[in-house]
Amino acid sequence: MKGSGEEGQVKLLGASISPFVARVRIALALKGIHYQFVEENLQNKSELLLQSNPIHKKIPVLIHNGKPVCESMIIVQYIEEAWGNKAPNLMPKDPYDRAIARFWAAFVDDKLVPCLRGVFTSQGEQQEKAIQESVANFLILEEALRTNPCSSGKLYFGGDEIGFVDIALGGLSGFVKALQKAISSVLIDEEKMPLLSAWMDRFCEANGVKEVMPDPAKVLEFISAMRVKFTSPPAAK
Length: 237
Description:
By secondary structure, the chain is of the alpha+beta class. Helix content is 54%, strand content 7%. The protein has nine helices and four strands. It has a four-stranded mixed β-sheet, with helices on one face. It is globular and about 50 Å long.
């Protein structure tokens, strides 16, 4: 999609199977913002990516009228602020509710993501520990769905519409589902986490989300291939 009109020139550097890139694509899709998607080869990063994110040299990077913005949830906040006149609102209007949304988004990145990375890259006892920690964090999110005033009795963490926390966690949902298949283990148990399980299914099927979510087969293929690499014994010298 090509950036034009009131959006200006909008370009997204990313990889279609990345859960972090998915977050940005979801936010852009929900806001109805047209953009050019540039598929990056992470084994041979483009000069544009290296120039746009010289510190971390990572995707995603949003380039809006020539100015780069990095880090997925910072980009989502930027999208909300730069196109605040476009519905839906991805952040609550109330300052306290906004702070709570940022808290839970940070919980996803600071607590859950490292555990999922541990499940992805390890095996044996290390992996079992990472699985247990991941499940514990998902149970905390289940309780947040149940008790948080913004989400209690509502469809999403953000209320009746998808919001900031939904994007933070929902962008990872395709990766989580594929990871469960790859390791033959359950991270989100329907019986123990009925609200979170239903939320994930609802989120993945929502208009504006399902069209830009990573291909499940390709994500599973990527995870399986990388797990072979991570868990194989080092070659003898």
